[in-house]
Amino acid sequence: MPKVKRSRKPPPDGWELIEPTLDELDQKMREAETEPHEGKRKVESLWPIFRIHHQKTRYIFDLFYKRKAISRELYEYCIKEGYADKNLIAKWKKQGYENLCCLRCIQTRDTNFGTNCICRVPKSKLEVVSVQLVPLLIWAFARTWSDFSEVRNGRGQDH
């Protein structure tokens, strides 16, 4: 597939330093978009695309705001050409939104119960849920409820 020509204006100085990383992320994005999604829910098929979009935007955000490794001209060029999401970067600059993974996480209209994404819950507030896998696995392999009750009571047959 030929490379998409983004703009007639030549990129600013410093572009050659970030271009290989952005090209690699573009290639990963194309692979994620063409990946088969049979057997997945609609939202599950979009997760890799959101993750790569976040990586590209975070890469440019970190270069400009955190490490101060690129110029404002190059930063604005990346936003104008669609390499970074300016709305997501605007949220990252606000207090409380520093770790936002995507803009869908704060849009309550996209959820069933009008809630936010798990990334919006502070780690200190998350509850640790103890999951016992052995009973779940036994139940998953039991063929009928009577098989399940026999296995649970210790009278299961070895097959």
From TrEMBL:
Coiled-coil stretches: none
Keyword Cytoplasm in record: no
UniProt KW keywords: Nucleus
Cross-referenced Pfam families: BUD31 (PF01125)
Subcellular location: Nucleus
Superkingdom: Eukaryota
InterPro entries documented for this protein: BUD31 (IPR001748), BUD31/G10-rel_CS (IPR018230)
Protein name per Swiss-Prot or TrEMBL: Protein BUD31 homolog
Gene: BUD31
